[in-house]
Design brief:
Blueprint: H1 8-20, H2 23-30, H3 34-48, E1 53-56, E2 59-62, H4 64-91, E3 94-100, H5 101-118, E4 123-129, H6 136-139, E5 143-147, E6 154-163, E7 165-168, H7 170-176, H8 181-187, E8 190-192, H9 198-206, E9 216-218, H10 222-230, E10 236-238, H11 240-248, E11 253-254, E12 266-274, H12 281-291
Parallel strand pairs: 3-4, 3-5, 8-9
Antiparallel strand pairs: 1-2, 5-12, 6-12, 7-10, 7-11
Helix pairs in contact: 1-2, 1-3, 1-4, 2-3, 5-11
């Protein structure tokens, strides 16, 4: 049935060697001798009829075909490992959910105790997303909270749509609250994150112009720039989901805009899972709990 299926042991030896770029480190990981790993790799090369590595003395590198094969085999191993973890997890009442770090820290984590108190039978485990595009299989999770609807294999449920707005510390707000917005944005540094054109979008959509360029302070993550805003280091762009608790507690203040002003920076959050999990009761419970906050 599987005419070209290679043997598993040589595949494992090849994947470990290519990942470490070392026969000795691969042998240590697999708990076998270095010669055994080398022998298994040679068996795979013989099966494929090609060299997977370029050996130059003690230096080891992947051949062109070897690099292509390693990329595929590693993804396959990751997917197999994660799928096995999910199957074992579902059998033990574990539900794994991937979320963006900013969403988790500013909204989800403060509300997790409520979920765990209400649904003690569900072991909800949180993983952090670092990219906007989500791959549930590679992440080894059952569900996720993502921006946008990219994958046709996933079931999506809209949670909320948010518009971003300027925020600052109470101390800064007291100094600029009577000023026009353009003047306020020139008085303090503008805190910039991953999306380095968001402030420019605000300027364009509100028709703001300046005699000289604003001062920017850059941060690699929205969590960092929001903390900088709380510390009074400048003015940031945020949304309700990321700053509601800080605004309610008085750590941040939302800069008011005129009723006809729309800065045009929108985020759409979705709860997603693979379509074959539509009847999973634990995922359904997590989904309904999330939706209860955003009706």
């Amino acid at each position: 049935m599987y005419k070209y299926l290679p043997p598993l042991k040589p595949l494992r030896a090849f994947e470990a060697t290519a990942r470490h770029m070392s026969f000795s480190l691969a042998a240590k990981e697999l708990c076998v001798t270095q010669s055994a790993v080398s022998h298994q790799v040679k068996n795979l090369e013989s099966f494929l009829g090609m060299s997977l590595f370029i050996r130059q003395g003690k230096h080891l590198s992947l051949s062109e075909k070897g690099g292509q094969y390693f990329s595929f085999i590693q993804r396959m191993f990751i997917s197999l490992d994660n799928t096995t973890a999910k199957i074992m997890g579902s059998a033990s009442g574990v539900t794994r959910m991937a979320v963006y770090g900013s969403f988790a820290m500013k909204w989800l984590i403060p509300r997790l105790p409520e979920f765990r108190k209400k649904y003690p039978e569900i072991d909800l485990r949180i993983s952090m997303l670092s990219e906007e595009e989500i791959d549930l299989d590679l992440l080894g999770v059952d569900c996720g909270i993502c921006l946008g609807k990219e994958n046709t294999q996933y079931q999506y449920h809209h949670l909320l749509t948010e518009e971003w707005f300027p925020v600052c510390s109470p101390q800064i707000y007291d100094e600029i609250k009577n000023n026009p917005l353009a003047e306020s944005l020139m008085k303090y540094p503008l805190l910039e994150g991953d999306h380095q054109n968001d402030w420019q979008k605000l300027f364009d959509n509100l028709g703001l112009t300046f005699d000289k360029p604003p001062v920017y302070h850059y941060f690699s993550h929205v969590i960092l720039l929001l903390q900088a805003a709380i510390e009074g280091q400048g003015i940031a762009l945020s949304s309700d989901i990321l700053s509601k608790d800080d605004i309610d507690s008085g750590r941040l203040v939302r800069l008011p805009l005129n009723s006809d002003q729309n800065i045009g920076i929108i985020s759409h959050y979705y709860f997603c899972f693979t379509k074959d999990r539509m009847k999973d009761l634990d995922i359904k419970t997590v989904q309904n709990w999330l939706l209860s906050f955003f009706k």
